[in-house]
Amino acid sequence: MTITETRTPSIAATIAVHGARRVLLAAAIALLRGSGRRQLLVVPTHNDHMRRDIGLPPVHAPPPRPPVRPW
After folding, report:
1. Quick one: pLDDT at residue 15?
2. pLDDT averaged over consecutive 10-residue blocks of the chain (71 residues)?
3. What pLDDT score does 46 carry?
4. Which of 13, 24, 27, 59 could form a disulfide with 9 if both were Cys (CB 3.0 to 4.6 A apart)?
5. Residue 33 Cα distances to 19, 21, 26, 39, 50, angstroms
6. What is the pLDDT of residue 3?
């Protein structure tokens, strides 16, 4: 069984091949671009009692109160 080694080139070798300006520009772009896709923020849905406890308005309007009977 043969084990193959993969070596990553050193920064000095990369600069020697591509030049300092291109290596610096590629590094700056990689830092500014960030990593891949961003995930959407998942907002948990709480019931109206929990929302009221933490100071949020209710999601659903409260049901109408029955009319008051005069008798």
Report:
1. 92
2. 68 92 93 74 76 83 79 69
3. 80
4. 13
5. 21, 18, 10, 15, 38
6. 61
What is the residue-wise DSSP string for 6-63? --PPPHHHHHHHH-HHHHHHHHHHHHHH-SSPPPPPPPPPPPHHHHHHTTPPPSSPPP
pTM: 0.41
* Cα 18 from chain centre: 33
Rounded Cα distance, 33 and 65, in Å:
55
DSSP 71: -
Measured distance CA(48)–CA(59) in Å, rounded: 6
For the chain, the residue count is 71
